[in-house]
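Below sits my pick:
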Amino acid sequence: MSSFPIQVGGKWTAMIVLCLEDGPRRFGVLRQHLRPISAKVLAETLSAMERDGLVSRCPLIGADDGGVEYRLTSLGRTLLDVIEHMRAWARDNIDELTRARDSFDRADSTW
């Protein structure tokens, strides 16, 4: 049995990829776009993504605060197609998913 090398389905990975789709962003800007995420979880997720080669951490030249920005690598950009396929699948199957969840919730509430 082979293992799956990365957690593309992690709660924040896809959202971070989408936030970086149009170009690099600083940590604070990512946090603004991903409001419910804590600084700790964002830092851990970005670090894991950097380890996997999905994002790069680039120092901002001339920044007085020693700031950095995060950008998608070419490998990270390949996830944009994967995410779009997942979105299309969800759009195509939303009615069936909703019915299944409603059925499960009704059965679960009778316990």
The two ends are 37 Å apart (CA to CA). The chain has one domain: 13-109. The longest strand covers residues 55-59.
